[in-house]
């Protein structure tokens, strides 16, 4: 293309606000009939049979939805199934020799599993776990990087009816201990280490440190990923994964029949207050929903090679690396490492090598690709791509268009999918074979999803006005409760907008949004005290408690400030105890305190020492003001504060840092 053509194209793209799905995509899309929205509405909740029908059931359900104890909804009641059977066994006949998992390590080594091979290993792992004592409903924690043994262990647990609780490998030892204690989890599957930028990273020491903080007996299985690159010794209650599984070679384990409403897994996530909450997902509703959204939104077909570049340690990886794609019998790609190792074209090399059909990634990654430049994708043949997706945070139109042009070659629809750990699967996004795309806006709610944008009193806002997202009807993939904390489940998600007297239950996801005349929803971000760093959800309270645990810190406030690459970054404002002075060492120990308490992802961008925090007359920290200071925004009137003078001092400090 000549330079002038290129400039004209850029100009056209910059002005364009609406994009139609490419004809070539529509012709082959899984869902193409626009009447689906109406059909789902008219036929609700029975419309969800369509999701359940994507699975194989041992026993069919009696009722699609039971709602006599709201908001404790139950889906596909009376139905029985096994998730591992659905993700593995049922594909054996037609697709036994086809790839289920295509894994690539950071150093370039590859491992692949056909459905037949996956079946064998899942069975062996299930037999081993069962003999270790894992029974139905025992929670097995997994603290693992992106190695194939992670989905294998998840599916092995599902096979024997043991819910898993996967803790992101980047989280700290403390975070692991907190989650194992909260779930009373007596089993851990972990890994000696993994590669990052070519170096073998020790993970087992962190796991062991975490285990020291667990208040009950545990049994641990350790995957040896690093071989000679890291020597590790196993403790008394620790077994080597390969040795263990070798003892069960060729064994098969009958999948345990689970009720639709039986727990499939727990996933701990951050909220405004207190400790991370254990989001409970079920076997029937969750799996149906993950399969349905993979089919309708990601357009997954069995013959595809599909790649979601998230980490399985987050919900995106659960729903859209493991359960959704494998339930549909496709090939799911897993990559261990970073996108810029050994060079910034690593992602595009993977797309080319495996002829990836769909790529699902995060806006934070797209912003990095943009910064690195289009010369990296240009080095590779990306023509296998049919659909692109994003998740985790708002994507700005500029990044959307860059993705559309430089990765999708203007011939792939983009689905900007809004959802949460709690929703189990996608909620607001365009259907790629049907809807016009508007960069920056996620799109309308999916068929059958009654999402609205409302004001404080629950009334729908006029187009263009900012409000809050609510979901006014239940859906199969929804969380059922917070583990062992039904009260908190109600407080956190249902109290804000429900009218208990009228028996009207409304789910509040704690996101702000706008809606346009066509019903397209643009997500504005969290309205609670959750920070979204590179699409990762962190609670300000958790960060603050890690900071105040540092010796010499008297009080701390953590807020999110805008960040070009990460979306948001953590800013901490710190008051020191008498006798402690602001210093580089102090700053360092605070940063380390956060890394030890939560993990490197929560690392503060700035630590600002101050003698006071701006507070209201009633003594509440003014977080919004601290956010405005971090963003260098106009602060408006601060005279109602108890201590208005401090604001200028803090602002000065942030600016000069
Ligand atoms: O604020 C929304 C943002 O991520 C939050 C959910 O985080 P988590 O439970 O960790 O799940 C992330 C992956 C599903 C939401 O409350 N979020 C997620 N997707 C989008 C988004 N914000 C804007 N646009 C999205 N597509």
UniProtKB/TrEMBL annotation:
Enzyme class: ligase
Annotated stretches, region: Disordered: 1-30, 632-657
AMP-binding enzyme C-terminal domain mapped to chain residues: 542-620
Keywords per UniProt: ATP-binding, Ligase, Nucleotide-binding
An individual GO BP term: acetyl-CoA biosynthetic process from acetate
Gene Ontology MF terms in the entry: 3-hydroxypropionyl-CoA synthetase activity; acetate-CoA ligase activity; AMP binding; ATP binding
InterPro entries reported in the protein's UniProt record: Ac_CoA_lig (IPR011904), ACAS_N (IPR032387), AMP-bd_C (IPR025110), AMP-bd_C_sf (IPR045851), AMP-binding_CS (IPR020845), AMP-dep_synth/lig_dom (IPR000873), ANL_N_sf (IPR042099)
Keyword Protein biosynthesis: no
AMP-dependent synthetase/ligase domain span: 89-475
EC identifiers of the protein: 6.2.1.1
Domain Acetyl-coenzyme A synthetase N-terminal: 35-87
PANTHER family reported for this sequence: ACETYL-COENZYME A SYNTHETASE, ACETYL-COENZYME A SYNTHETASE 1
Record family assignment: Belongs to the ATP-dependent AMP-binding enzyme family.
Stated name of the protein: Acetate--CoA ligase
Encoding gene (name): acs4
